[in-house]
Specification:
- The complex is a heterodimer.
- By secondary structure, chain A is mostly helical.
- Chain A is built from six helices and no strands.
- In chain A, helix 2 crosses helix 4.
- Chain B is mostly helical.
- The chains are: A mainly alpha, B mainly alpha.
- The interface between A and B is large, with 118 and 109 residues.
């Protein structure tokens, strides 16, 4: 039960932060990416603000256990494989195209009209299809 | 317009606080694409309940705030269905292949100085910048 309540609170904070920061406004996100046009620096402040509590949280994990039990994530891998790079290229292209990424797409579901639902539905289909693409990439890498 | 950065910073702090709660409480990385994607492709079945609770918070709390305050935030989402479908597919496939998005690789990865998080963020930012540069500045279609 504690895990559920903590997850709900974390999600609530995340969604509220996304909404208040302006990151569910596609114009502000595309404005951040539009460095050759009317550039909007807001996303840098959002990212900067988010990194502060997270950096503190990572420091607090040392020598401790999660409050609701279990263990903390293992240290990150170091290798930059083709899935990381290719996936990020595809994601970045879609992000620039519509100005939505997964978090804001969820946070704005209730006020982004049919457009928000259509994007979310397509994103969900992409997520369900992704394992197939991943296997294909791994096979191509193994044959190379 | 001048206050945008203050809202950005304040909202960003809340986002980071959410990530801190999820990490220190449940021992999990707050990545929107991973939490949702794991539910959709079945890989996250073992902890589906906390994934659903997290997504419930993300979707319902902004709705609640909009209802209580009486006005929904402004968005400028396109009404071009082809663009929405194409972008959604790219975001869905890309984030799952790369194993993370702006929250997982960006916020959670960079804050622990993860090389993969930093590299992924640099790549998707560059891809986004290039997409907007070509489609908006060069072709004028978005």
């Amino acid at each position: 039960m504690l895990r559920i309540l903590l997850a709900l609170s974390a999600g609530g904070l995340f969604g509220t932060g996304l909404m208040l920061s302006g990151m569910t406004d596609t114009a502000k996100v595309q404005g951040w990416l539009d460095i050759f046009g009317n550039w909007d620096p807001t996303l840098a402040f959002v990212m900067g603000g988010a990194l502060i509590p997270m950096a503190v949280a990572w420091r607090l994990t040392a020598g401790r256990r999660p409050a609701a039990g279990g263990s903390f994530p293992a240290p990150p891998h170091k290798e930059l494989d083709r899935r990381l790079i290719l996936g990020s290229v595809l994601f970045g292209a879609g992000w620039g195209l519509a100005g939505l990424c997964p978090g804001p797409a969820m946070a704005s579901l209730s006020y982004n009209g049919w457009q928000g639902f259509l994007f979310f539905a397509a994103m969900a289909c992409g997520m369900m299809a992704a394992p197939w693409f991943s296997r294909h990439l791994d096979r191509a890498a193994a044959n190379a | 317009m001048e206050a945008d950065w203050i809202w950005g910073l304040g909202g960003g702090l809340l986002i980071g606080l959410g990530g801190a709660v999820f990490l220190l409480g449940n021992g999990r990385i707050m990545g929107a694409s991973g939490i949702l994607g794991g539910l959709l492709d079945g890989s996250g079945r073992s902890n589906a309940a906390e994934r659903i609770a997290f997504i419930g918070g993300v979707v319902l709390v902004p709705l609640l705030i909009a209802l209580v305050t009486g006005h929904a935030p402004v968005t400028h989402v396109t009404s071009n269905a082809a663009v929405l479908i194409g972008a959604g597919l790219l975001v869905g496939i890309g984030t799952r292949i790369a194993n993370g998005c702006t929250s997982g690789h960006g916020v959670c990865g960079i804050s622990r100085l993860s090389l993969r998080g930093i590299a992924a963020t640099a790549v998707f930012m560059l891809a986004g910048i290039l997409t907007v540069a070509v489609l908006r500045q060069l072709l004028g279609v978005i």
